[in-house]
């Protein structure tokens, strides 16, 4: 029987720990605060923002929002990010991306103080993911994949992992983090040949392509644990992942489904990072 790896128990367990950490900080007069920067009214951004607010509230993290019209001038948003970077009462910032094309994404990332980059978008955080330096914070979704595997006691070390997708937001950092946990990792993308055969060999399969039900019959095998990261809408208008769950169930060992899997674990990881950033800033000041 296929085990369903639900996100909620992972979130509940994270939140219990985070709540006690944030209470500890509050008792010392420290309130962890996340700044959310959103440009425009993109529905996905608004949904993600709501999820982040909910998770932060559960973890005892305050949220301060910086909302801009879609046609905001680049200089205006840059100066807001610079102000966040020097504000001692803000510990982390989430910049909802992609940004409108008239805003230079890299310039905005550079304007963010690395220690407040709780979603792994600055070069400093990337250096932490792609080297052994352990600095900054990893992208939240990639870390959520690892947290979920660990929560369900799924062994990573020594196992064959395949990551489908190589974006800097999910695929590449997830692959690097699996490697750090001593998995043997293969990264697949649109030019990969014999994708189904490679996926079948995976004991851990992380899929982040943005293509509904791309991973289907012929891709599955009994020893697999699948983490489906994709968020798509199917032909009936229902939310679905990159993995054809109906076809996977009954064959694979375990699957984190969409919806109800990795999605909100991502925002719980975000709250975790803000609390850690708050602790680090307090340490720096003592
Ligand atoms: P990108 O579009 O940036 O990257 C998609 C990756 O998938 C690319 O590397 C691409 O390869 C690869 N890919 C696309 N089609 C195929 C294919 N047919 N075969 C093999 N590889 C393929 O997407 P993101 O990484 O940003 O997001 C991926 C998915 O994850 C989306 O559905 C997104 O909504 C979801 N997501 C979910 C989050 C959550 O919290 N749960 C957070 C972030 C994203 P190539 O490089 O060759 O183009």
UniProtKB/TrEMBL annotation:
Tetrahydrofolate dehydrogenase/cyclohydrolase catalytic domain: residues covered: 5-119
Alphabetically ordered keywords of this record: Amino-acid biosynthesis, Histidine biosynthesis, Hydrolase, Methionine biosynthesis, Multifunctional enzyme, NADP, One-carbon metabolism, Oxidoreductase, Purine biosynthesis
Classification via SUPFAM superfamilies: Aminoacid dehydrogenase-like, N-terminal domain, NAD(P)-binding Rossmann-fold domains
EC annotation from Swiss-Prot or TrEMBL: 1.5.1.5, 3.5.4.9
Binding-site residues for NADP(+), renumbered to this chain: 165-167, 231
UniProt-listed Pfam families: THF_DHG_CYH, THF_DHG_CYH_C
Matches recorded under InterPro entries: Aminoacid_DH-like_N_sf (IPR046346), NAD(P)-bd_dom_sf (IPR036291), THF_DH/CycHdrlase (IPR000672), THF_DH/CycHdrlase_cat_dom (IPR020630), THF_DH/CycHdrlase_NAD-bd_dom (IPR020631)
Keyword Hydrolase in record: yes
GO molecular function, one term: methenyltetrahydrofolate cyclohydrolase activity
GO cellular component entries: cytosol
Catalytic activity: (6R)-5,10-methenyltetrahydrofolate + H2O = (6R)-10-formyltetrahydrofolate + H(+); (6R)-5,10-methylene-5,6,7,8-tetrahydrofolate + NADP(+) = (6R)-5,10-methenyltetrahydrofolate + NADPH
Keyword Amino-acid biosynthesis: yes
Pathway this chain belongs to: One-carbon metabolism; tetrahydrofolate interconversion
GO biological process, one term: purine nucleotide biosynthetic process
Domain Tetrahydrofolate dehydrogenase/cyclohydrolase NAD(P)-binding positions: 139-281
Task of the protein: Catalyzes the oxidation of 5,10-methylenetetrahydrofolate to 5,10-methenyltetrahydrofolate and then the hydrolysis of 5,10-methenyltetrahydrofolate to 10-formyltetrahydrofolate.
Subunit annotation: Homodimer.
Stated family: Belongs to the tetrahydrofolate dehydrogenase/cyclohydrolase family.
PANTHER family, alphabetized: C-1-TETRAHYDROFOLATE SYNTHASE, CYTOPLASMIC, C-1-TETRAHYDROFOLATE SYNTHASE, CYTOPLASMIC-RELATED
Protein name: Bifunctional protein FolD
Species whose genome carries this gene: Synergistes jonesii
Higher taxonomy: Bacteria, Thermotogati, Synergistota, Synergistia, Synergistales
